[in-house]
Amino acid sequence: MSALNKGLVTGFEENAVHILQSARSREINARQELREQIMSRGAEQEALAQKARDARSSTGDDQIIVRASIEFSNFCRQRCSFCGMTATNKQLQRYRLSAGQMFDIVKDVSALGVSDLHLASGEDWAFKADALSPVIRQAVAAGMEVTLVTGHRKIEDYAVWKEAGASRYILKVETTNPDSFIAARTGTELTQRVSHLLYLRQMGFKIGSGIISGLPNQTVDDLVDDLMFLKELKPDMSSVSRFLPNSQSRFASTPEGDPDTSLNFLSLLRTEMSRPGLRIPAGTSLGRRQIDAIRHGANVVSLHVTPDEYADLYSGYRAENRISTKMETIRKFAQETGMPLRLHL
User: For a tag site, which of 53, 173, 201, 299 has the least CB within 10 Å?
Assistant: First the structure.
């Protein structure tokens, strides 16, 4: 076993296989109902959205949690077909924020009263774990809860960040269809990614994962499998992103995902996984329909605090004209949906 692979082995690989297999073996009747709900439109779709709002209310999660997001690096070792930050993209101008830049942003976020901080990057293994630790410590000292969205890292990196005070980790699978996963996430393995989620939970992190709706050749049955997987995993945070073709990715010519299908999947995340504290974001991949995600059961909105000059360079889904949600927009969402903002956790 190479030193690289040794750093990725968690001991939870068999558990990961079991969860994936269990998700695919759900009873036929339940799967058929989920297919119909995913594809619902009109009155049936609104009924599903209402059910999701009721589920959110029943667990006391009828608030919009504001999470500040610092995207500190767009370097990535992976070669994902849907993402503009893929290592094969030679057009993209790369950047890394310095610790000093991040310290200043954390101070600004703290001044706003926001206490949920996301530190996000590509899988930038050249950005050492120790280099991020001072930023985590500063944020925790300011009363913030720190979530890391830094991809698939060596297990010793997770330990460094946990010791620094990080408490949540998001690692999206994007799809649980084995063939689609290979096509979308060239350079990694589905089982290994799931095993890392289980390892992170065992370490004491609260975990998050999610999928992309609208990937090439994706079927409704694939989405049902994805939902069943997330239900088996029982994450503390879960999400669905609508596929947007990044002009600098291998999937550049693929049609964008259907927003209603994404919204219905989001509603089902809320109803099928209902429990207190479940965080489901209203993502910018929905564009002008981002607010509809709140009406379909979401309870988190990201406040993008990455410096403006880097906004389009963090090009996961878009290579240009990326939507960056600011506080004015979030306040508008709260006003139009009648949900109070929650800045401090």
Answer: 201
Encode pLDDT of 158-172 as tens digits: 999 999 999 999 999
Q: Contact 79/187 with Cβ under 8 angstroms?
A: yes
CA distances from 167 to 172, 210, 222 (A): 17, 18, 31
Instruction: Determine what percent of the chain is predicted with pLDDT higher than 70.
Output: 97
Report CA Rg, the chain. Answer: 19
- What pLDDT score does 65 carry? 98
Section 70-88 average pLDDT: 95
What pLDDT was estimated at residue 321? 56
What angle, 0 to 180 degrees and rounded to 10, lies between the N-to-C axes of helices 259-272 and 220-233? Answer: 30
Q: Report the C-alpha gap between 206 and 171 in whole angstroms.
A: 11
Q: Kindly report, residue by residue over 4-23, the tens digit of the pLDDT.
A: 566 899 999 999 999 999 99
| Residue 5: predicted pLDDT | 62
DSSP 8-class letter at 279: B
Number of neighbours of residue 276 by Cβ within 10 angstroms: 8
- Give residues with Cβ within 8 angstroms of 192, minimum separation 6: 8, 13, 16, 152
Classify residue 88 as exposed, middle or buried by CB count within 10 Å of its CB (0-12, 13-18, 19+): middle
Backbone φ and ψ of 209, nearest 5°: -155, 170
The helix (H) or strand (E) run that includes residue 277 is: none
Q: Which amino acid is residue 211, in one-letter code?
A: I
Burial of 258 (0-12, 13-18, 19+ CB in 10 A): middle
* pTM greater than the 0.85 cutoff: yes
Q: Which residue has the tokens 């996984």?
A: 273
- What is the chain's mean pLDDT, rounded? 94
Which structural domain, as residue segments, surrounds residue 301? 3-342
Q: Tell me the C-alpha to C-alpha distance, in Å, between residue 113 and each of 32, 108, 283.
A: 45, 9, 22
Q: Which two tokens stand for residue 149?
A: 């969205």
* Number of domains the chain is built from: 1
